[in-house]
Amino acid sequence: MLLLKSVIYLFGLWIQGINSYPGEEKHDIGTLAGDVQNWAMLIQNYILQLAGDGIKRDLTQSYLDQANYTYEKKNGAEIVRQVKLTLGDYFSKKKRAAERLAATVREIHDDFLLSNSTAGVQVLKNMDLSFYRDSDIPSKLPEDIVFNPYFRTGVSLKQSSVKLPDEVPRNDPAVINTVYFTAKLEETFLQNARDDPLLRWQYFGSTTGVTRLYPGREWSTNFAGFYNDYDARLRPWYIAATSGPKDVVIILDCSLSLKGEKFSIGKAVAKTVINTLTKQDYVNVICARASHWDEVGKWHYFDTEPMSCRQNQMVPATNSHRKDLIEKIEKLKAGGTSELQKGFEQGLKLLQSSPRTGCQSLIIFATDGVDTDGEQVRCGPGYYTRSGYVPGPICKYNFSDVWDLVTEKNSQLNPPARIFSYLIVEDAELFPGNLSCSNRGSIKKLMNGENLISQMSNYFEFLSANALSNNALWTSPYLDSWGLGLMLTHAIPVLSKVTGKYIGVVGIDATLDEIENFLTKHQWGTVDSFLINNQGETIYHPRLKPSKKLLDDPIFIPISKLERNSKGHSEEFAIIEREMKAGKTGSMTIMKAKDGKQRKYYYAALNNTEYSFAFSLAETDMEFRRSQEPVDRSKYDESYYNLLKEYKGTLLREKLPGLWRKIDIRENEKLYPGLRITYKHSTIFLAPKTHCDPTKYMYNDNLAEKTYQAHMWINGKQPDLGCESGRQKFNKGVRADVLISQPIEEIWRTRQFESINQIKWTNVGFRSGVFRTYPGHRSSRGYDPTKRPWYKRTSSAPHKTSISTPYMDAAGVGKINTISQAVFEGMTPKTDKECETWKGSPLPGGCKCDLDSDCMTKVCYMSKAPGPNADHRRCSTERVEGVTGLDILYDDFQNKTMGSMQASDFRKSCQQKYNCPDGEPGCETRCYLFDSSAYLVMDPDFLLANNLDESKYDGVTLGRKEGEVMKHLIYHHGFIKRNEDTDFQGSCRISPDAPKVTLEGIPKTPEESDDYYRNRGPIPKFSSDFGCIQDVVSFKTVDDKLGRISVCRHYVIDMLVSMYIIFISTNSASGMITGNVSGPCMSGFYYVTVLPKTNLYLLVIEDWKPYKETLFYNFNCRIARSVVNSGAYRIINGTCAHEDDSSSTLADQGKCPALLDIEMKCAYTTASGLQLSLYLFVSSVIIALII
């Protein structure tokens, strides 16, 4: 028996060691468990007391509970019908404008041609200014250019201007004539603008490179002060209109004979072709060459392989794939043999792979055509003789093998590939010429890499001529080169009736923010909307980044990835997606949608476009409760719009005399430098979505008129009829939220508590977009409280008080934290009988409750709402009406929390230093607060961080500071869960981020931010950011893991405990996790516990001892922290994270445009380069002898 007990005892010790890691030491059991639990409660009480004293959420909730509400039944099908009409009309107007412009271009061009007219000048600068205004020449700009907020730059609304690419000769007769005859577009530009006030840029891009743009403007400059180059022929809207879908393989002769300038030209050819592809095309690039020996017998390894991240198939020519290929081409260096057979074999194989379009197959081949690579390239090993080393034979290539291979393989393709060869510098036309002419292509010789668009005219003219069509199209969204964000363009190719050739392309723009406004203005409750194209690619979705934050043309994400349910599946949604791609209208219910709840989708297609949109509604959205304005307005004071400056202006002084004195506007107060504020009142900001026309609001710079209209509406008594009436500027219910929240102003103004001087702002933001803040001040124009992190974080867990990580205040006064709480829609009281059906499960809003856990929302409170059980606590309603909060200076927040963490023995309080258990000095107690995403909210080091160095305190993760503890919490306890996702719209930097030295010159107040685009200089600020695909790592806490023993050890531990031999606990029943860590960065005994009524957790590390870095850098420590750090990391081959697994081609689907299948002129000199040189030499000798 003694032996058995000894074995079990040893087994118990082994069990204790199960959770240890190699090399980790075991420390004594900690002594602070009781203190840590006490500290957590003290900090939570401090936060709740601060929120109670400062926010006064209970009072705001009581105002909502006592408000009157009306019920509105929502019909999803009717909403879809209305949006289809309004959005369809928006697109139709753009289409009509483009058609009118295209007809005018054709008419004036053909008239000019038939009349044999000329511009009458031989030098462009001599042309009369009535015909020629140049965006690149200040002296030739339109004279009436003024800043226009609708275009975000200075424009002339009376005249257009032209833009010429840098590579196009300005005095070319074709260029001069194009500038001259396109001047007659002026009247059509003006007529279109009159017919559609929402029209943005109108333009015509000519085949000569000339772009005429209305309104006229000065071109933007780069950071060096030079005008940016622009060639319409390279823009997505032009290319998509003039060439149909195609499959393009670019084969580069990478052999050593091209070394130097020749290879630079070859790479430029490849890049030019890639830059003129659109996402409707497929592409790959092959660097063709083979290994060889050199003249001294050294072996040089080279291979032929496709350069895309997917080597066995074509890739869509999306922005990401084009950038990826160009980046790889830039890094290429000439070397290897001119062994091209494998290159063409692989290229023709790619043109048979899937996915591809199947519409047109094209091979672009760049070579110098020579059949030898010089003395350095040998096709065999050398050997030694008594006389010394004899190098292998010089390579001499038999190109007939390549011709035979291409003839055989190309005959098996459908459609067969046309080959366009570009001979670089040399005169060796035989090989590339025969290759092209035998495969219905063309050959051109290039002597330099300048103006390649014009030099490669055989290729580009073929594309436009072979797919000759005047069919209009809507492009995929792209970033506007002229600063208006994400654009869709209705592009129409224009053909001459005289020549039958392209004249150019006209374009009319539609901005994505306008389209988004059409969709979001019809949303309510938890309703979402999205827009996709007929390929299922997402154009707009709430989860996508706003276009203003994009750095490059967007990478389109399949809608199925964004509408997956909580388990990552989208099988049911696939039916909806299929219907939308087919252009159908309908509805469907999904029992477990993306949020894990039942949602009903209503969808429809937009006529005459490739787009479809949808709305998704939860069950609770079918009936909408809208708060009503108080009947008795006598108890409510006046509210003031946030643009305080305008109350002192001429207009409001005249129309509202004396009001500015009542407001008592202060400027440059100590706590609010650079701001205008009022201590006497709160102010109201109305987000763009509260306006009937958000676009007009955003681009209206008449701030005085805007302030007057808003002031009169929020304080007015005229009936609130909603936007549908066409007689008001604000959505229905906006004024109700303003009035209901008005009484909180006096409460905020007169409150008194200990930390009042450390509170910067107090506010409440409603789901309607109404935002009330105290002290009253201005908010930036595009601000929307419902899109702010504090609003989203709090509304996602409305039963908890939420605390943000520290961040730099917009006014530059220092680090602050936001503490926020949710307020719910007014209570809907229920009788006990109505609540009986929910017995045994969480109760809905309005039912009588005793504890928070009794309710669905986990919020049980005394409500002032009338009705049953008014004298008892009742559950809150399920809908969050808004979020109210305050901003507190970080220094005070930390000092208060740290001050409350005093150890009971007064020896191991937070930040207190003492001797380690081994008697050595240098240990201390470290304390942190972190949130449910493992971001640090409080860290002693934050207090020392420079306010301008935000990287030291904003968004700092627990893993970055305490990697060993983070590793334990993830892999040992399962308390923190690691998540990975791919961000196709990420942002990377060329150089590491650096702290700001000063805030001078950086917009830091709302007024400066709003006026930045107006006041900025002509030279843009330099940015090292660029768009990239990123692997996003994030973390989430799992509260269920608190207070549980790991399952894998449960049975053995129970057995041992029952025998009174050993007791082991890693997660105590009191909701605390403890553990020992010893790693490359530090050692100590840690405790983690929750602050249950908040989103925070307390981490305390007893006997914390850092390990000093050896030598210059503790690599092991850095690695330990980096593997458990969250963030976004660039994927090197990120383009391939975006999979295209389609197997059918456009040709299979019958979606390829009709082709003319034209025959091309193709001729070449049959002599080889060597033969031609010999012929010229002999000829010159004979001529010399004759002379």
Give a verbal description of the structure.
This protein has 1187 residues and is α+β, with helices and mostly antiparallel strands. The chain folds into 5 domains: 56-68 and 626-825 and 879-885, no CATH class; 81-235 and 473-512, no CATH class; 243-445, Rossmann fold (3-Layer(aba) Sandwich), CATH 3.40.50.410; 523-621, Beta-Lactamase (2-Layer Sandwich); 901-986 and 1028-1044 and 1069-1131, no CATH class. The chain is built from 33 helices and 50 strands. Strands 4, 5, 6, 19, 20, 21 and 22 form a 7-stranded antiparallel β-sheet that branches. Strands 8, 9, 12, 13, 14, 17 and 18 form a 7-stranded mixed β-sheet that branches. Strand 5 (202-206) and strand 6 (211-214) form a beta hairpin. Helix 4 (76-114) runs antiparallel to helix 6 (186-195) and helix 8 packs antiparallel against helix 9 (319-330). The chain is globular, with a radius of gyration of 36 Å. 43% of the residues are buried. The model is unreliable at 1-27, 1044-1069 and 1169-1179 (pLDDT under 50).
Number of domains: 5
User: Beta-strand level of the residues, as a percent range?
Assistant: 15-25%
Distance between the termini: 124 Å
Helix content: 25-40%
Overall radius of gyration: 36 Å
Unreliable segments (pLDDT under 50, ≥5 consecutive)? 1-27, 1044-1069, 1169-1179
- Count of alpha/pi helices: 33
Task: Profile the largest sheet.
Answer: 7 strands, antiparallel
The number of strands is 50
Mean pLDDT across all amino acids: 85
What is the approximate shape? globular
Secondary-structure content class: alpha+beta
